Amino acid sequence: MNATNPPESGTVILRVENGSKMYAGVHALQDVGFDVRAGEIHALVGENGAGKSTLCKSIAGAIRLSSGRMSVDGQSVNFQRPGDALRAGVCMVYQETSLVPSMTVAQNLELGRERLITRLRPLNIKAQQQLQSLNFHVDPTVLVATLGTAQRQMVEIARAAYHDARIIIFDEPTASLTPEEKVHFFYLLRDLRAKGLGIVFISHALEEALELADRITVLRDGRHVVTQDASTLTREDLVRHMVGRDVQATHYGRRAGSDAKGKREKVLTVENLTMGNIVKNMSFTLYAGEVVGIAGLIGSGRTESAKIVSGALKRNLIGGGSVYLRGRPVRYDVPKQAIDDGIVYITEDRKLNGFFETMTVEENIHLGSLATKKGFRWFVSGRQRRELAGALAARLKVRAVSAGAKIIELSGGNQQKVVVAKSLIQEPAVVFFDEPTRGVDVGAIPEIHQAIRQLADEGKAVVVISSYLPEVLAVSDRILVARQGRIVEEFSAADASEDRIMFAAIH
Amino acid sequence: MTDTTATPDTTGKGGGRRRLVISQEQIVLIVTALLAIGFALTLSGFATIGNLLALTRSVAILGILGIAMSVVVIGRGLDLSLVATMAVSSAFALQLMQHGWGWPGAAAAGMGVAIAIGLINGFIIAFVEVPALFTTLATGFLIFGLGRTFLLDGVITYLPPQAETFAWIGQGQLLGIPAPVIVLAIVALFVQVLLSRMTVGRFVYAHGDNVDAARLTGIAVRPLTMLEYAICAAIGCLAGLVMAASTASINMQIVNSTLIFDVILVVVLGGVSLVGGRGGVLSVLAGTALIGTLLNGMTIMDLDNNIQNIVKGAVLLAAIIVDNRLHPQDEETARQGD
């Protein structure tokens, strides 16, 4: 497969041949071939569980391959630990940053290289030079804890460069960046490429991979599918390689008659919602049978507004604005009250606060029912659990290994479906989805979108908060744009476009 | 879409983490059995009915306390004030009996004191949001001090001689089985039903597994926390009553003993992880059986206290290492295949 690439685009720094990794008798990677050249950006794409992280971790020395050969500059290597890889010039930047929050930027850069006694002044000067050479505007003397995600990532990159890395691997670097930060980040990557480094980046955003990468490798189920020049691939090609079949982009929003607002029942009205510095005068109205997409940058107050309405956060006691549910003013202290009134919030981070990892799929879903006034029973009935939870799992097409499977054994998409099912079993009238397809495999995304559509068709008021514009455009009947804690623009599905939304979100 | 998507999702993923399915409580039970067989073959006094009854009887109170503790530990809490609560509430009940109360009234009053303490613990932890460790460490001292100052007359409270009926739960037996063991069995059954058959119990597991998810799912987490500590304290009081009945007195010095650590030992040993949401009544019983067998065997061998402490410490360490192997929590393995 490597033969399809022109050889002049750089010398191969690192090569993996027949790389396999077994976990408890199952192949996480099987006979994978992969190489990184000097001065290239190499994107690695695939569904969750395709083996991207496993491959990168083995290159970075965090795990060891069960079999296969790896070479750096033609020399065979066998990394036992990340330190070995680092010495060979391979550095990995993880999703959860590996910086020490209680240390300064400069100290973090030096981390792992300290002498017995380190003097701070020369350290800060050296760090300042390093940061400036990369055009990073970060003060080396501030604590990492005070930095935002994007800045932390810069420090990580600076650290890699500081350690004379020749290959830097990024694990989903853009997942938590705002659009402007992404632009800057891409600029940095191109800069590093120009300096002759080999960049590997794992991404779920195919557009990014196509825009940025020189070559793209697709993995599926632990096997190498294809490595090609990015210029010869399209989004559809990539999806087909990843999934092994065609997935169409579907538009679920109501194309016509969506401005029949007057006829629909007004379910929820939010007026001048205010919470600290994050939510300022947020106002919007939700109608039954409609999907409202809320677009905007991270930190624009969308998640917080949804959480306030659903009782997970509290608005300002004085001047916090009002929320009316079918004309009745409401103010919830805890989510339970909102749920009893039919308002649910489906979290953006299912691992953090979405599901119960020790429980099975059915137990997770059934707990949602038990936690409502209507569904509460003193004693748990296994039969009732199977019936209720089974029906919801089937409706959302949850695919588990077995009915009693633990939720942590499922793929990201199926976990997300379980979390959605756990809320839908509560028979809500208003549903807030926060980033409903983040970290969800490509195949499951349309199924979740269909479920969202179905809810609206059943007459529920649905809100989808998403930073992924194609998603907002695909599912919404009406699109609101949030900026700096307030709604600044409203589009009907027909009028909206990515450009117009982005323009409103930023200006 | 329905028919085509069936393949890619289910493959590869779940299989990767399938490991040998053996729980910690099973390991503990197997070790206990091996140990018991070993003792039976080597120690002459071990495998007698009398000794086995003495064994179960000696750990019954520890088992009851362990089950009490497991209720809060499964809910990702910890009650370091459990022994203080137990001592004060049961001594209070004994004192009421001395003052001429009937045993049901006195026991109920002691139980009331314990439940009040539990609710206060839960309130501070849930509503004032002080970590359970600090809350119960502090309330433990408070309960001991306040109890000694305002409720109790002396360090040792004796069971009045007329309370023979009451003394049965400590000294009596039914069909040859010592009453404390019967109390343990009833408590175990009650908590088992509560935790695994009742919705409240499922909420406790949910609470321990993921507090934020439990809250977002609509579980009233804060009242639940109060309930957990109240149940724990009430069962603790029961353990205290059994203890008082079997020795005909309760000595407040027990609060200053290492009993609370023994309780945590049997809880953690069986697989009720301090992480929360894991283990159950059976785990506590398994842990109690192992400790009981060990202590009994060592007593027959006439090993001194220091050696017994060394063995206890080593066993706890081994249990924690096994737990770490079985339930790896680190980033590397937890995120495998993501």
From TrEMBL, chain A:
One of its GO terms (molecular function) is ATP hydrolysis activity. Coiled coil: none annotated. The keyword Glycoprotein does not apply. SUPFAM superfamilies: P-loop containing nucleoside triphosphate hydrolases. Residues 14-246, 262-504 form the ABC transporter domain. Keywords: ATP-binding, Nucleotide-binding, Repeat, Transport. It holds the Pfam family ABC_tran. CDD domains: ABC_Carb_Monos_I (cd03216), ABC_Carb_Monos_II (cd03215). InterPro entries: AAA+_ATPase, ABC_carbohydrate_import_ATPase, ABC_transporter-like_ATP-bd, ABC_transporter-like_CS, P-loop_NTPase. It comes from the Bacteria. PANTHER family: CARBOHYDRATE TRANSPORT ATP-BINDING PROTEIN MG119-RELATED, GALACTOFURANOSE TRANSPORTER ATP-BINDING PROTEIN YTFR. This is Monosaccharide ABC transporter ATP-binding protein (CUT2 family). The lineage of its organism: Bacteria, Pseudomonadati, Pseudomonadota, Gammaproteobacteria, Nevskiales.
UniProtKB/TrEMBL annotation, chain B:
It is found in: Cell inner membrane. Keywords: Cell inner membrane, Cell membrane, Membrane, Transmembrane, Transmembrane helix, Transport. It comes from the Bacteria. It is a multi-pass membrane protein. One of its GO terms (cellular component) is plasma membrane. The keyword Transcription does not apply. GO terms for molecular function: transmembrane transporter activity. The chain crosses the membrane at residues 27-49, 55-73, 80-97, 103-125, 132-152, 172-195, 229-248, 254-275, 282-301. InterPro entries: ABC_transp_permease. Belongs to the binding-protein-dependent transport system permease family. AraH/RbsC subfamily. PANTHER family: ABC TRANSPORTER PERMEASE PROTEIN YPHD-RELATED, ABC TRANSPORTER PERMEASE PROTEIN YPHD-RELATED-RELATED. This is Monosaccharide ABC transporter membrane protein (CUT2 family).
